[in-house]
Structures are given as structure tokens and as C-alpha cells.
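ZP: hey, is the magnesium ion complex queued? I don't see it on the tracker
AM: it wasn't, my bad. submitting now with these inputs:
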Amino acid sequence: MNLNDKISSLKGVGPKKAEIFAQNNIRTLEDLLYMFPRKYEDRRNTTRIKDIQSGKDYLISGKILSRRYKASPYKKNSPLSLLVGDETGTVEVVFFNGRYIANLFNINGEYTFYGRVTENFDRFQMIHPEFFRAGDPNDIRGIIPVYPVMKGISQNEIRKLQIQLKPLYEQLEEWLPDELVKSNRLASPAYAIENIHFPKEGRQMKEAKFRLVFDELFTLESGLCYMKNDSRKDSGGIAIDTSAADEFINSLPFRLTSEQMKVWKEIEKDLSSDKVMNRLIQGDVGSGKTVIAQLCMFLCARSGYQSVIMAPTELLAKQHLASFREAFRILNINVELLCSSMKTREKTDVLNRLKSGEIDILVGTHAVIQPDVIFNNLGMVITDEQHRFGVNQRSILSQKGKNPNVMVMTATPIPRTLAVILYGDLDISQIREMPAGRKPVKTIVANGDNRNRVYDFVKQQLSRGKQAYIVAPLIEESDRIDAKSAEELYKELTDKLKGHNVALLHGALGQSEKDKIMDDFVKGNIHAIVSTVVIEVGINVPNATVMVIENSERFGLAQMHQLRGRVGRGGDQSYCFLICHNESKIAMERNEIMASTTDGFVIAEEDLKLRGPGEIFGTRQHGLPEMHISDLIRHGDVLEKAKNIAKELIDRDPNLSAPELAELKQRIKKMFGENIKIEL
Ligand code: ADP
Ligand code: MG
């Protein structure tokens, strides 16, 4: 038996089950070994029935004293109720699907049950517990691992497979340098794996977990330090002459805020030296990041370099194009657009002029990273709303030039501690203040009952010449999910808002239709847009003063915050209505947070508490590798430790070339995949 053997080599795993495992990224025995329990059940001892309490999980043993199951000719299924007793008391065990299991229980037979005890009037019940007849080999006692749920494979099956893997433990060798193991008192890999699956006591489980969390976070931090170092050691960057900065700043119709100035000073230091800039600009929607991007790109142009900004949607790219052209009108700088919906002739023209160096600034979508896009001398690349792009796309863009300066703009105001992890290879600048004169958006929570009053208010605003966004979570009516779809909503609102032009905007429309609608909205010909979340990013219409979010319970905090940022962009008071059709605790909590603050950083912290980092950026798409066992918040102390050790290590050995680090490199490669360039 070998770590690299296929999972189908195990007894009990045929092609069908192997396929289910594969869908969960488990292909080899090693993968299965590293599929860790998500929790444990304490089934070391049975509890006497008189000692059980409501609300907890128990293992009990007893005799079936009575059995009640009445098959009904009208219903497929009726509940089965068992009275189970030991020497100390009785408890009722209930199965709602009685028909299928009624015959498994004999009066006076001995059984064990494991499950949650609840109180129903005057008696204790166990509803749908796991059960075993006395002597059943599956009735395992001890601390029982509970694995992630996989449709089609039961917990018992996974446990049995893990037992089959036990002979592999001796193949797990120590892979960290000795001194590191000693100074951190780490358990051995074999001990860790054995005790994460089959701990005998809590202490062993903790030791095992610490080792595995450390392994994961140390690999993460080593990879991040390696990348960061890699991008720095190159001094062969492009130095930009920043002396013309005032020319641009003075041409603006407003003064930069002190936060914008602070960030500009940080950028200026990077840009004017020949070190390659790698900087993340974090700032709430509307905080004025785009102006900073324009300033940088202006200076590139003045220094004879080209620059490019990549936006996640065509809508946004086109809005950038318009605002850039406006900003550069009198400064004699050539801005062009590139996106996939353009006609071939237009595209070819842009590509040719880009290659010849005639175009100073390129604004575009993913189209700008296609292989046929060739720059003459690229000095800077900017990605807008980076959380939509993978690290990989960012690096393809950089490779279009010779060490161009890199700037990433994001409106996701994640806490700095996490930003450092998520964007480990970047320096971070934050804009934490809105331009003066902005009134914070008023946020009002409504429900189905006062929904009509919300739209009366919207109508009033439209009558005053203001504009509104109404957002629905889905495009088409669905029986399965009871949510107002955009189309249904659109029909309703054309009626409710009679006398005003209402348009429907959603992702399934063709590009030219979308553009036409947005264009008409910007010009004021359309007064209200009913939309799915395609307006989420970047759109800027200062005359829009109302944002209505229908079925707000379907939106996350970060998403609602982004949406709300579409309004409050002009001098007038703006409003955001959250229409919530669900009174679940989490929905109410989210609404409350939205109503109480407009500070994106506060919202981000709360979001983190409610959802955990896994859900916010657990996926590869966000550039952060998936963690199997660690929790970046809960294991913050281990993370800190791992970071310091990794930093020291990289300082001493920037290429991780020492032979005892070979396995670390392998693990970094496995964790970061194509997001890292590392020589093995
Ligand atoms: P972001 O990209 O951070 O969402 P933008 O750069 O698009 O924000 O700025 C939003 C709006 O605020 C734009 O209309 C912009 O012209 C304006 N703006 C930016 N900086 C300032 C400032 N310092 N004072 C007044 N208005 C500003
Ligand atoms: Mg922006």
C-alpha cells in the first residue's frame, strides 16, 4: 500500500464511489488521509438515562419496552415511536420514516442510540438517532471522527476506509528541518495523522491538530514570503518621472483628500525608483481610487511609457474610458478601449496602434490579457476590483511588459491582517476617508408589509428628477426559490412607477443592449433601473439617490455594501432600502449592521465574524489557496508564528535551495498551483 495509490485500490471503493471522491478532489490514498474530520463525537461512555439533559448529544443503551407504529392506508409513512429504558429511566426514540425501519426493532431487544436529546412537554426524546443492535460491529466507542459530508458516501464508510489506511502511517516521514520541529515542539507527521483521525483523548487530538495547522500555515506563509521576495529582488524596474504630478492634480475640479494624498505619496516613492512597484490600493467604493490610477497613468504617459487598466466588466471598462477621456481631454493623452465585443476591424486598429506606441493608455476587460495584445513599452499595469481576478491573470498582464509597475485596486475593504495574507505579495495602501461633501447614505430596513411605501418614496424621488436602482437577486421566476426575479419585478414596477422610464438590466442581455441602457441611465433618459447584480461594480451616476435591494436576505454584507455604494455619489441625500422577506437571525443581523454603519472596514470585520474567512475568500478564484484544517482567524497566533519563521527562512535562503527544504517547496507548489512560479 502506497500513499500515491489510487483510492479505488481500497476495499469497498468501486468506480462509482471513486467518482464521488474525485468530485471532492480526493484521488489518492494520501488525499484521503488528509481529509480531516470536521468535528468529533464523544462516544466513550454511555450515559444513564436519568442523567441525560435536553439539548446535548448522548450515547445511551437500553431495552425496547414498547413500540408504536401504525401503518396508515392513506399515508406512505407514519412515525415510529419506541420507548427505551435502562435501570434508571426511560426515553422516547422517534423516527418519522417509521415504515422503513419499524421491523428492525424487537421488543426487549438491547440497542444503543447516539443523538441529540430534546424535551417534548414532560418527556425526553431522541429524534432520528444513530442506532446499533447489541453486538453490531459498527457500534464503535471512543472519540468518533465526523468527516465532511459527501453525497453517496456515509460516515461509517469513510471511517472504515480510514481504518484501512492505518498501515500507511509509517510511511509518513518528517519533512520539516529538525531544529524547527524541536523549537516548536511539533508532534511527528505520523502521530499527527493517526491522532487527528483516531484520537484517544482530547490532548492527543490537540497535539495532532497543532502540527497539521502549523504545517498548513507554515507552507502558506513560506509561499507568500517566497512570492513577495521574488517580486522585490528585481531592481530592474521602470522608474517614472513624477515631477509632472501637480500638472494633473491641478487640472482636477476638486482637491485630493488627505487620504488620497497619503496614498499618492506612498505610490510616488515606488514609481520614481527603479524598484518594481507591487501595491494594493484598498478603499471603499467612491473613495477616489480611480483618480489615483489616472494620475499614475498620466505620469507614465508623460514619461513615455504606456499603461493599461483592466476592469472586470465591459460596463465598467467603458465607464473608465469615458472618465479617462474627460480627465485627459486637455492634457493631450491618447486613451483607447479594448474589449471582446468590439468589431474585429476596430480591435485590429487598436492592437496596431498599441504596438506602434501611439496609444498611451489602454482601458479594457479580460481582452487585454489575450496573446495578441502587444505593447510597445509598458510601464504600468493596473487591475480594478482585483477580487474578481485571479493572481494568475494579474501576472499574465504584467508579463506583457518588462517588469512594469503593478497596482491593484479593490473596493473590498478587508481587514489589514487578512489583506496581508490574501495579497501577500503586495504592499498595501488604504484610502479610509470619503471626499468631503458626501452625505452618508440613509439605510432603511423594510419588509413585505411596507414595501409599497418604499416604492411610493422611490416615485417621489423620481418626480424630483432623481434616479434609482432596484436590485433583484435572480433573473427568472423560480418555483424553487421564492425570490422576486428581476423580470417579474420589472413588470410590477413599470406599473407602480408609471410616468417614469424604467428599464430592465441583467446579465443575459447582449452587450450593446446593456450599454444602451447604461448610457441612457447616465444621460438621464432612463429614471430607474431594475437589475440583477451586474451593476455591482464601479458604476458612477451621481444623480442616482435611491438603491432598493429586494430580498436582501439573499445578499451578503459585502455585496450589499457594494450595491449601496452606487448611490450617495453626488451632493444630495441618498437612501438605501433593504426589503427583507425573511426574519432569520442572520438576515436580521446583517440588516442591522447595514443600517448602523457605512464604513466598509467595519462592515468587513462584521462580515468576517458572521461568515468566517473561508466563505469570504476560501476559494482559489480569490487567489488564496484553500485551507484544509486551518482557520485564518481562529489560528491567528499560529499564523503569526508561522509567518515569522517563514520570513526568517526566506531571508536566509531566498530560493529555498537547502536540500532539507525540498519537501517544503513541493508543498508550496501543491498549495499555490499555477499562482506561483517556483523551481523545484
Ligand atoms: P472609486 O474608484 O474609489 O470607486 P472614484 O475614483 O470613481 O472612486 O471616485 C468617485 C467619484 O468621486 C468620482 O466622480 C470622482 O470624480 C469623485 N472624486 C474623487 N476624488 C474626489 C475628491 N477628492 N473630491 C471630490 N470628488 C472626488
Ligand atoms: Mg472604482
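AM: back. The pocket of magnesium ion (ligand 2) is lined by residues 289-290, 384, 538 (CB under 6 Å).
ZP: great, adding it to the tracker
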